[in-house]
Amino acid sequence: LSSYLTLRYYVCLAKLALHHFADLSDVSISGDIPVQGEINVPVGTPSQDKEYSTLDEPVKDTILRDLKAVGKKFVHVMYPKKSSALLRDWDLWGPLLLCVTLALMLQGGSVDRKDDGGPQFAEVFVIIWFGSVIITLNSKLLGGTISFFQSLCVLGYCIMPLTVAMVVCRLVLLGGSWGFSFIVRLIVVTASFSWSTFASTAFLADSQPPNRKALVVYPVFLFYFVIGWMILTFSPSA
Amino acid sequence: MAANSDFLLQFQEFDSSESHLGGIGDATTISIEDTAAGSHNPQKQRRSAPVTSFEEDNDPLANDDKTELLSGQKKSAPFWTFEYYQRFFDVETHQVRRRILGSLLPWPGKNFVHLYIHNNPDLYGPFWICATLVFVIAICGNISDFLVFLGEPQYKYVPEFRKVTIAATAIYSYAWLVPLALWGLLVWRNSKVMNVVSYSFLEIVCVYGYSLAVYIPAVVLWIIPYEAVRWLSIVVALCLSGSVLVLTFWPAVRDDQPRVAIAIMTAVVALHVLLAFGCKAYFFSTLEVKHTAVDAVAGHGTKSPPTTKIQ
């Protein structure tokens, strides 16, 4: 219906234009120019109905759709190409999941020491979210075009290599703390922290003016370095 | 008509002298109006027509001046908007790099503010240099503890994350509260003695923030557990960053009374020294601490873990 109305509108405009030109060029054209024909425009109403009816779908479908979106973003982080899917459909489920996993796995270390021990759950949480907010504010103040939540989304998802490194470290720590296991942990944490930094700059660097890219990348580097340090220095209780 | 042209000539002179003293086109026109009304009161009825015509003639020029000034100056957005803070981040990578290098290599006669800041103080440098320094101190302190107590059977390695909070509080309060106090002090002295050089609060924050940059490599050197290396690096770092501060603030206080000037410079240097030695003492344990701790454990036979306290 809307397409038909648009067509009518354009026909009226054409009539007006013809009248105008008729006045200018002194050619007489009779009044109305009737247009006849059939218009078959595929209107997208069926799909609109589909989107509005997500309330009726079973809960399993909703959860699976969100999980698929989160999973697709994990794949994007593992193979960082310059795609805009991560930026367009941002969500904070993935970062929350990763942050909670990382904070839980950093617990259970040095429980015999009440003070001067490893980070508490709340400390890890605060460092990750507060750090992400500060980096996002920094990139926006420097003139970045990325939005606030998109940046939080990217920074949160790029913690995934470090979470994988944490899992690996805990497995390696089962076989001893020092010597060979330390070398292995060092290599794993270094590799995953550079992967995280590289993946997040692949997404974030495009939104910055070209002469300020290093100013935006450095805080991201510092952020993942600190998280990598927390993972490397995790020492389990005796 | 001759009287009119005389009056117009007078008006023009007054206008030009006012613009030299005033500086803002808006204020100049207002003051001229007032003095014209005051001084030429008895002649006002006769002069009102030429005065208004001259005013109208002057107004487009004043508007041009105003727009020119506004385009040259930074737009002042209200402080609760995002744009207000964006003008403090108006720097580029090469500018930040130049500023850091300039703070690492001070030269007598080269004022850091005039040479590198150029009326464009930024908050990026101070904030991220302080953040880097906080984490570097915490991490390097941790590593140095580990290296000092390596081989001790009673020592169990712990990452001490409490120290990050303490380091952050110390560094950030030094880098932001001391400039605030110094700026207040300089403003107060400026009201008593006319100084040639004066700095805004953000420029002082910039100088302090960039002067802390030289501590980052020094702190990394403190990992090495030999006292000679640590003392050498702390002295070199203190000289470099202290001289940046001294070279910046000496022109601002030298016109003051000699005792006040010396007192201010001594306070600046003393606080800087206090920060450096305080960080070194609190975060970095030494071999002597290890020996005393080991002796204590061996002497008393207790299993208490060695504590790393101020030497």
Automatic annotation (TrEMBL), chain A:
Residue stretches making up the Yip1 domain: 79-230
Listed InterPro entries: Yip1/4-like, Yip1_dom
Residue spans crossing the bilayer: 90-109, 121-142, 154-176, 182-204, 216-235
Topology term for the membrane: Multi-pass membrane protein
An individual GO BP term: endoplasmic reticulum to Golgi vesicle-mediated transport
Main location: Golgi
Superkingdom of origin: Eukaryota
Gene Ontology cellular-component terms listed: Golgi membrane; trans-Golgi network
Subcellular location: Golgi apparatus membrane; Membrane
Pfam families: Yip1
Keywords assigned by UniProt, alphabetized: Membrane, Transmembrane, Transmembrane helix
Transmembrane found in the keyword field: yes
Record-stated family: Belongs to the YIP1 family.
Stated name of the protein: Protein YIPF
Automatic annotation (TrEMBL), chain B:
Protein name per the record: Protein YIPF
Subcellular localization(s) per the UniProt record: Golgi apparatus membrane; Golgi apparatus, cis-Golgi network membrane
TM annotation in the entry: 123-144, 164-188, 200-225, 231-253, 260-283
Keyword Transmembrane: yes
Keywords: Membrane, Transmembrane, Transmembrane helix
Gene Ontology terms for molecular function: small GTPase binding
Main location (coarse class): Golgi
GO cellular component terms given for this protein: Golgi membrane
Protein family membership: Belongs to the YIP1 family.
Membrane topology type: Multi-pass membrane protein
Record InterPro entries: Yip1_dom, Yip5/YIPF1/YIPF2
Native organism: Hucho hucho (huchen)
Region called Disordered, residue ranges: 34-67
Ranges of residues in domain Yip1: 104-276
GO terms classed as biological process: vesicle-mediated transport
